[in-house]
Specification:
The chain is α+β, with helices and mostly antiparallel strands and about 130 residues long. The chain has 4 helices and 6 strands.
Length: about 130
């Protein structure tokens, strides 16, 4: 039974060209994230990942008295959620994890990145 299920998954991957789609969307998501970095400079520290699992690490903000804290990822996550985009915060650094479905379309990805851009701009304006 489990082998038949695995076979079905592999057939679906082949029929829907899932791996090629993921490779194309990976390139697109990096282009979108570079655009966001250029619109809001000094806000995103690093973009990293492989395929469609991408980490977006934010610059840590220095508070009063020199203390450093990381609340930007959580603030962007909340702003994106208000706009209908669900994102994950992960790791010990101030990082968002983007992990869309392997079958995401270019249009869906573009819409999500537009929401992310607006959310980043909102948080950057406040901080």
């Amino acid at each position: 039974m489990s082998c038949a299920a695995a076979h079905g998954v592999l057939d679906a991957f082949e029929q829907d060209d899932v791996l090629n789609n993921a490779a194309l969307r990976h390139k697109e998501i990096l282009q979108h994230l570079r655009r966001i970095q250029s619109v809001v400079p000094c806000f995103i520290r690093e973009v990293r990942g492989a395929g469609l699992m991408i980490g977006v690490e934010f610059e840590q903000k220095v508070g009063v008295g020199g203390g450093v804290y990381g609340a930007r990822a959580s603030a962007v996550q909340a702003a994106a959620l208000r706009r209908g985009l669900l994102l994950l915060v992960c790791g010990p650094y101030d990082t968002l994890r983007l992990i869309p479905a392997l079958t995401i379309s270019a249009e869906e990805l573009s819409e999500a990145m537009d929401i992310l851009l607006e959310s980043v701009k909102e948080v950057a304006a406040v901080q």
